[in-house]
Amino acid sequence: MRLGGIGRSRNVEDRRGRRMSGRGGAVGGIGIVGFLAILAFGYFAGIDVTPLLTGQDSTQMVAREPTPAEEQEAEFASRVLTTTEQVWTEVFDAQVDGDYVPPQLVLFSGVTQSPCGGASGATGPFYCPADRKAYLDTAFFETMHRQLGAAGDFAAAYVIAHEVGHHVQNLLGILGQVDNARRQSSQVDANALTVRLELQADCLAGIWAQKVGGLMERGDLQEALNAARQIGDDKLQRDAGRVPQPHTFTHGTSEQRQRWFATGYDSGDLRSCDTFSTDRL
C-alpha cells in the first residue's frame, strides 16, 4: 500500500508504554460482543484471558520507549486512519444525510482500559461505541502474520478499516439497534445478529478499499481477502481442532467474510452492505 503521500491522522491517542495497574474489566463492563471476542481470540490464539473476564488485577507494564519497528507500525496505523477519514467524509457527503465524525484510534501496548471494559493484546482490535474509539495493540499485526497466516500491509489496513466500519455503524445508529435486539434474544439469535453486524463491517471495509484504490499495489486486494478468509469462524474453529459449530459463530465464515468484503469493494455503495435484510449471508 502506497502511503508515502498520506499524512498522519490527528485522531490518534498513543497509550503505548504507559504503566497500567488496577483491575481488568469484568464481563459486565465488556458487553456481549467484547465478551465473545475475548473468549474467541483467547481460545484460538492460545492466550489466557482469564484476568479480563474475572476482573483480576492486570499485570503492570514497564514504561519504555517504543522500538523503531513499533514506531513504524504506529505511523502506518495513523496513515491508514487518515485514509478512512478521507473516504468516509466523501461517502457521507455523497450517500448519507449527515457529516462524518471520525473516531479516535487508541494505540496501546499489552493492556489498557476502555468504557467497554479492560482490554489486552489478547482481545485483538476492537471498537467501543461508548467513547467512539477504536483500540489497537499494534503487536496484533505480528499475530496476524505469524499465528493467523494473514500477512501483508493491506491485510493490516483491512483490520483497521473493519473497526472504523463499526464506527460508521455507530454513526448510522445500527450498533444501538442491534444491541437492543441482542438483549432481547437468545444466545444463538444474539450470535446470529452479531454475525450480520460483523459481515456488514467487512462490507464497509470493502467500500473503503475501493475508494483508496489509487494507493493499492499489486497483491493488496488478495492480502485483504486472505485476511478475511483466515479469520472466518469456521476456519478458526477447525484450526483449533474443533468441528465448526455455526450456532457459535460471531463473525461469519471465511467465505462470507470474503464475499461481503468483495461486495463493498465492487459496489462502493452503502446500500449494498445491508446484511440485515438479506436471506443469504
Which structural class do the helices and strands define? alpha/beta
Order of helices and strands: EHHHEEEEEHHHHHHH
Roughly what fraction of the amino acids lie in strands? 5-15%
Task: Please tell me what the overall shape is.
Answer: globular
Q: Could you give the order of strands across the largest sheet?
A: 1-2-6-5
Intertermini distance: 29 Å
Can you offer a commentary on this structure?
With 281 residues, this protein is of the alpha/beta class. It has one domain (12-273). Helices cover 52% and strands 8% of the residues. The chain contains ten helices and six strands. It has helices at residues 27-45, 50-54, 68-95, 139-146, 153-171, 174-183, 187-211, 220-230, 233-239, 254-267, and strands at 12-14, 104-107, 111-114, 117-120, 126-128, 133-136. The strands form two sheets. It has a four-stranded mixed beta sheet with strand order 1-2-6-5, with helices on one face. A hairpin with a 4-residue loop joins strand 5 (126-128) and strand 6. The two termini are 29 Å apart. Mean pLDDT is 85; it is low at 19-59.
Write the layout of secondary structure elements.
Elements: E1 12-14, H1 27-45, H2 50-54, H3 68-95, E2 104-107, E3 111-114, E4 117-120, E5 126-128, E6 133-136, H4 139-146, H5 153-171, H6 174-183, H7 187-211, H8 220-230, H9 233-239, H10 254-267
Parallel strand pairs: 1-2, 2-6
Antiparallel strand pairs: 3-4, 5-6
Helix pairs in contact: 3-5, 5-7, 5-8, 6-7, 7-10, 8-10
